[in-house]
User: Fold this.
Amino acid sequence: MEALRILIFEDELMVAHDIRENLIRSGYEVSGIARTLEKALGILENSPTDILLVDIQLNGPLDGIEIVERLSSQYSIPVIYLTAHSDMKVLHRAKQTNPSAYLIKPFRMAELPLQIELAIHNFYQHPLLNPTKKSDGFLLSVGGIFIRVFNHEIIYIEAKGPASRFHLTEEGYHRIHPHRKVELYANLGYLFEHHLTDNFYRLSKSEGINLDHVNGIEGDEVLCSGYRIAIPTGKRKSLLEQFCIIKAR
Assistant:
């Protein structure tokens, strides 16, 4: 399984490197260490990141809360604040950015994994923390493990009992687990409301397809990267309208 990737925003380099080493020992990956907004934006643009770990008190023009405000305007990622502040005004400002967890300095490194798991749980369970920004990817909780699923790897989703099953590209299955095909399930309605981008089309209450994987439409079937999926009655015209159609002479 892929490890969660964490961006550390801390201007004390010794502290940042200490946190980094402890995260790696705990099985996480560190996407980068930032001391400025520009550095953090560069890391987020070039390195997949699952969590922001941000110190509130920084020696610069912006404090950690302002940094999170700027980053959150472009990225929807759970935030854990590191803070030694007990000032209620500071904590009130921090609350306005909807952090997923806090760590009060000084803290024991053993607390980090607990707060990371709490942050992931809070972010993906509460709509206030996870606004309806739709990005290419989300974390799926499977038996206590969080697996990252990228939208572009999803071919289609079909209902299997109370949940819906993902059908991924071979690259997607291999990235998640190189030696076996992991079956993933989630609620289809929740996915369409909160996580799936506009290139997904809901064929029915029980099926959704990624339009980027549509290879063609033959009769009452849509062809999606090797899958032939029946088009429900009355949906063919609506599905065709999702594409630019050029009539050949």
Observations:
- The radius of gyration is 21 Å.
- Helices lie at 13-25, 37-46, 64-72, 88-95, 111-125, 170-176, 188-194, 236-240.
- Residues 138-240 form a domain with the OB fold (Dihydrolipoamide Acetyltransferase, E2P) fold (CATH 2.40.50.1020).
